[in-house]
């Protein structure tokens, strides 16, 4: 027995120089492989980011060119003389400022109405016993992914009969048709994750269904509400098809529609002014997303993990 214990306690033999060298070589190979994987992944990410940013960088580069340099056809990546003259010309041009104000007003109104209606519809689909709720939700999803161009024709005929062509109200309704299904689906998914006990306790205290919704459920679901508002605003802000189809007079144009007419002369189109306008209408959306990115992510992923 004592001999067996002595054998068990006997230390393992030290590795030979050949074994030590083999282990070191294996570690070095693993390190090199890991370094190559990190390098390859970094290069892949760099290429993807460069491809994604190149169109915007080229637009920014063109917007910083002077009209004279643009007329000369300079093709270098960087302009010879950086200038913000195109931005100043656009910001002093009523043909751009008024459409920009029209876009802001129309998008804010359509976003507010879409969020309010989507909140009511999403809560009803989530909490109330509605016959055919699954069919309704399926139709909402189908409408949310319906092609925009396919809706232009029917809406144009309806607007012509109702006298809503060339009016901000008609465009607001069109944007609601476009954004309401997505906002409803998003809010309904979030309301499913809100505990019913919160509502039941409030209703026992005498609160009505609407009071429970606006005072208890909506504050809890604020990340999803904020996310649906951001998405609705971006979709409406970037729209061109509806504005092109339903608006006729320049006084009613939105910013994306007015860009087409900027920088045009009798013999040449100055794309430096057009690209400067593109940057100007893109910056609010970029700043909005950067400012609210955490709320957007939390709203989109709400309910994914219990």
TrEMBL record:
Record carries keyword Cytoplasm: no
Subcellular location per the Swiss-Prot or TrEMBL entry: Cell membrane
InterPro entries cross-referenced by the UniProt entry: BP-dep_ABC_trans_perm, MetI-like, MetI-like_sf
Protein name: Carbohydrate ABC transporter permease
Main location: membrane
Membrane topology: Multi-pass membrane protein
Biased composition (Basic residues): 18-29
Protein family (similarity comment): Belongs to the binding-protein-dependent transport system permease family.
Source organism: Streptomyces vastus
ABC transmembrane type-1 domain location: 100-292
Transmembrane segments annotated in the record for this chain: 39-60, 100-123, 135-159, 171-191, 212-237, 270-291
Region annotated Disordered, chain positions: 1-29
Entry keywords, A to Z: Cell membrane, Membrane, Transmembrane, Transmembrane helix, Transport
């Amino acid at each position: 027995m004592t001999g067996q214990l002595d054998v068990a306690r006997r230390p393992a033999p030290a590795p030979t120089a050949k074994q030590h060298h083999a282990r070191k070589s294996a570690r070095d190979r693993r390190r090199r492989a890991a370094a190559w994987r990190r390098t390859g992944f970094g290069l892949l990410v760099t290429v993807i980011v460069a491809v994604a940013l190149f169109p915007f960088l080229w637009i920014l580069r063109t917007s910083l060119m002077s009209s004279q340099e643009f007329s000369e056809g300079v093709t270098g990546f960087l302009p010879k003389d950086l200038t913000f003259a195109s931005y100043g010309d656009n910001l002093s041009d009523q043909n751009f400022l008024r459409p920009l104000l029209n876009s802001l007003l129309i998008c804010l109104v359509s976003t507010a109405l879409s969020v309010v209606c989507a909140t009511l519809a999403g809560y009803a689909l989530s909490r109330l016993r509605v016959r055919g709720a699954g069919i309704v939700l399926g139709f909402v999803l189908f409408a949310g992914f319906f092609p925009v161009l396919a809706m232009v024709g029917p809406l144009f005929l309806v607007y012509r009969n109702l006298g809503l062509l060339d009016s901000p109200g008609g465009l607001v309704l069109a944007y609601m048709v476009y954004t309401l299904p997505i906002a409803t689906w998003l809010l309904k998914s979030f309301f499913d994750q809100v505990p019913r006990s919160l509502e039941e306790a409030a209703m026992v205290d005498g609160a009505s269904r609407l009071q429970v919704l606006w005072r208890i459920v909506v504050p809890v679901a604020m990340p999803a509400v904020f996310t649906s508002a951001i998405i609705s605003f971006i979709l409406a802000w970037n729209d061109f098809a509806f504005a092109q189809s339903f608006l006729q007079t320049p006084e009613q144009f939105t910013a994306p529609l007015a860009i087409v007419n900027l920088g045009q002369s009798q013999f040449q189109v100055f794309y430096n002014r057009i690209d400067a306008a593109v940057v100007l209408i893109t910056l609010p959306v970029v700043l909005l997303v950067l400012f609210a990115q955490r709320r957007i992510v939390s709203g989109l992923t709400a309910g994914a993990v219990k």
